[in-house]
Amino acid sequence: MYTVPYHQAIHDVVLKSSPAFRYFPALHPFNSINLDSYHVTPAKLIHQKILTQGLQNNTLLSKTLIELYLSCHLYPAAKLVFHSIPNPSTISLWNSLMTAYTKHHMFIDALELYEKLLRCPYLCPDSYTYPSVLKACAALGRVGIGRMIHNHLVKTGFVSDIVVASSLVGMYAKCSVFGCAIQLFDEMLQRDVACWNAVISCYNQDGQADKAMEMYDKMTTSGFEPNVVTITTVISSCARLLDLERGREIHKALIKNRVDLDSFVSSALVEMYGKCGRLDMAKEVFEQVPRKNVIAWNSMIAAYSVTGDGKSCVGLLRRMIDEGTSPSLITFSSILLACSRSLQLQHGKFMHGYMIRNRVEADIYIYSLLIDLYFECGSISSAENVFEKMPKTNVVSWNVMISGFVKAGNYFEALGIYDEMIEAGARPNDITATSILSACSQLTALEKGKEIHRTVVDSELEINEIVMGSLLDMYAKCGAVDEALNVFKKLPSRDLVSWTSMITAYGSHGQAKEALRLFDEMQQSNAKPDGVTLLAVLSACSHVGLVNEGCHYFIQMIGKYGIEPRLEHYSCLIDLLGRAGRDHDLGLNIARLLIEKNPDDHSTYIMLSHSLASGNKWNEMRKVRLKMKELGLRKNPGCSWIEVNRRIQYLFVQDKSHPESEMVYQCLKLLKTHMDGDELVSHWGSAIIHTI
């Protein structure tokens, strides 16, 4: 609704522009217009009166008319008024329109107007021009134009103007060019609250929340009074740092100073308390917000999401809708994340159904969360359905499905999705490479791994440490020791995982001396081994029968590194003693002790039965197998696979579903006949056959 004071301002402008106008009361626009009606007609009638009085070239009147049209959202009319002036020679008129454009989010129009201004031979931008232009650059992410303006400001000296310089800092901050923003801030001789806010926000967005708090302290000690923007940012920094004490301190100061908490500050407080585990405080602040906007609701839902309370998140969503606030994509993402964390499949399905019913246009992040939810809850078919329906416009769409299959242990399916991705023309990135190499590692698919390696080189991902670490792990598990070593040598830096992978590669292929040498080298590099590293060392000793060395490292694991042995370490020790033919009874005793400790673990029984078989104690071995049967313990069926023409062919024990299964079984029968005929079955072979 138009207000009388605004139109009175126009009236005053008209009288100032043309004093003679007061002698024609019948022509006054305000005598014939109902100022209280919400309609665009008054603005057009005023414009008509101005034209009939020949006042269209009056700068002050044109400026006010432009503002009136913009306030009525009549943007083309405002433009028309400006462009109808033959030679708008007053810079304030340009600045007024430019400010109005940015105020109404017409950023492209603002930049186009600035470009037109630069072509004016008789006008130059002034200190009032640049804040609006820089705001438009920031909103559009046009940092290139911003840099050019920066250079111009340095040449013209406008960079010394505090408002202009502050706008420049804000532009760099919003365009995520944090280095330039901070450098410019440091060079400023004078500062205002806006530039302090911009640089504090820079550090917060850049993940340097501690530095943001440091700048906040400097700001307050320098005598500047923080405003709502400052407080919102520093509370967000406290949330990132999980600094509950400092956050509460700021909150108490706000209450003490009777600061009116708007929805932004309140939302930041809710987020901070939620992330710091004080759900009670988050709820207290939230309930005190009189008019809750979508940001406030999202903050409270996110607080519940941190704890994985999907039920409460859904309850808040219902209340949010009942109170008249429409959920955003951030709302849905928080709820889906909560459901995924707590494995609440039903609530997740409810959210998915709600989005379908209400025709929510999901983005790639929402689709990814849905797929992740279904994988986490074991509903792989649902994840596949979402993937089929989601747009596959970039690599992210494919990555989420590949990584989901890998996490679920469906490595063959992961390779299948990767092949589809390549056929679709999508370019793999570092996340793709890391995920698919993990699948190759688990399947020991060397040829496929080499193919991925070539893609890594072509995509210039060799500088990525995580990708190279995955590549090393793949070669190590595939038994390609030389290739693994080449990758290991090219690593820019070596972490615990890369050392362990290379030790595993040596140890798994009988090069125990090299594995132990590398372990010594690792210790000299100050890298501290963990249980996985020691398992690789023990396994290396076991493969070649280095009993003394294996026992030495087992004792060192406990005494020197303080690592408590797990089942796999004991298993390796038993295997070491058994293979060497020494202390066989000690190995059996350890196995029996482990069964007493873990009576429901089938792997311990299998380990004991193999040890008994290696000692030709067949009767005892059969008793162990019968005990497993009585307890209902079953060994997972054995699976083998072979890579032929870059395709993985896999076979399970007693499985005849493979299209070539008949031929495979005939080959096995033929091989066994030859082996029996040539008497090639050794003591170990007999033991294995007897076990089967």
Folded structure, characterized:
This protein is mostly helical and 692 residues long. The chain contains 38 helices and 2 strands. The protein has helices at residues 4-17, 41-52, 59-71, 75-84, 91-103, 107-118, 130-140, 143-156, 162-174, 178-187, 193-205, 209-221, 228-241, 244-256, 263-275, 279-287, 294-306, 310-322, 329-341, 345-357, 364-376, 380-389, 395-408, 411-423, 430-443, 446-458, 465-477, 481-490, 496-508, 512-524, 531-544, 547-559, 567-580, 584-597, 602-614, 618-631, 661-677, 683-691; strands spanning 639-644, 647-652. The chain has a two-stranded antiparallel ribbon with strand order 1-2. A hairpin with a 2-residue loop joins strand 1 and strand 2.
Instruction: Give the count of helical stretches.
Output: 38
- The first-to-last residue Cα distance is 88 Å
Relative helix content: 55-70%
Number of strands: 2
Structural class: mainly alpha
User: Per DSSP, what share of the residues sits in E-state strands of 2 or more residues?
Assistant: under 5%
How many strands, which pairing sense, and closed or not: the largest β-sheet?
Answer: 2 strands, antiparallel
Q: Specify the overall morphology.
A: elongated
Spatial ordering of strands, largest sheet: 1-2
Low-confidence stretches: 1-39, 680-692
Radius of gyration: 36 Å
